[in-house]
TrEMBL record:
Limits of the Helix-hairpin-helix DNA-binding motif class domain: 144-163, 173-192
Domain of life, source organism: Bacteria
GO biological process: DNA repair; protein secretion by the type II secretion system
Entry protein name: Competence protein ComEA
Spans through the membrane: none
InterPro entries: Competence_ComEA_HhH, Endo/Exo/Phosphatase_dom_1, Hlx-hairpin-Hlx_DNA-bd_motif, RuvA_2-like, Soluble_ligand-bd
Entry GO terms, CC: type II protein secretion system complex
GO MF terms held by the record: DNA binding
Pfam families, sorted: HHH_3 (PF12836), SLBB (PF10531)
Length: 197
């Protein structure tokens, strides 16, 4: 008799254990599905954030000026070359001096490319500014660039250009030889100008 009670008791315990395990298994399965469902949108958002970050890192901006048809600041993809910048700026003008242009050079974010006209004084130094200094080269700057300096308006900018057409500046102090630019204006602009790229 003890043996039969023991078998019945064991059977009841096993049935209860199976019911408990089945109930827990269903609950775990439901929770697992909920977790998978709620984590899925977050994963999509993370992928989107990563895609946007990668896109932002591959995007660069370059200012192209001088003897191009449509000068301006353009957006490029990292790895693009000077020829891509020239194309985006509408191509070269007929008067462009092309002997000093390395069309195969890779673009650098924030750089300024200046394409000289054949009649312009050509600076034999580095012909582009990679944006590392942030200073305006008074030997190559456009009128608009010069006018961005404090105290330099359209008239003074044109005088600077006229002066350098005769000869290039050999020092930043030499800008004081331009009519109307004295010590007062020089003090305002000296930290923002250079003669070197």
């Amino acid at each position: 008799m003890n043996n039969s009670i023991y078998k019945k008791g064991l059977a009841v315990v096993l049935i209860i254990a199976l019911i408990v395990m089945a109930t827990l298994g269903i609950k775990l399965s439901v929770k697992e599905n909920e977790i998978m469902y709620t984590s899925s949108p977050d994963m999509t958002n993370n992928d989107t954030v990563l895609d946007n970050a990668e896109e932002e890192l591959s995007c660069i901006y370059v200012d192209i000026d001088g003897a191009v048809n449509n000068p301006g600041v353009y957006e490029f993809t990292k790895g693009d070359r000077v020829i891509d910048a020239i194309d985006k700026a509408g191509g070269l003008k007929d008067t462009a001096y092309t002997k000093n242009i390395n069309k195969a050079r890779k673009l650098v974010d924030g750089e300024k490319i200046y394409i000289f006209d054949e009649g312009e004084n050509i600076v034999p130094l580095n012909l582009y500014n990679d944006g590392s200094e942030g200073k305006i080269n008074i030997n190559t700057a456009t009128k608009d660039n010069l006018m961005s300096l404090p105290g330099i308006g359209e008239v003074y900018a044109q005088r600077i250009i006229d002066y350098r057409n005769g000869k290039l500046f050999s020092s930043i102090e030499e800008i004081k030889e331009v009519q109307g630019i004295g010590d007062k204006i020089f003090e305002k602009i000296k930290d923002s100008i250079t003669i070197n790229n």
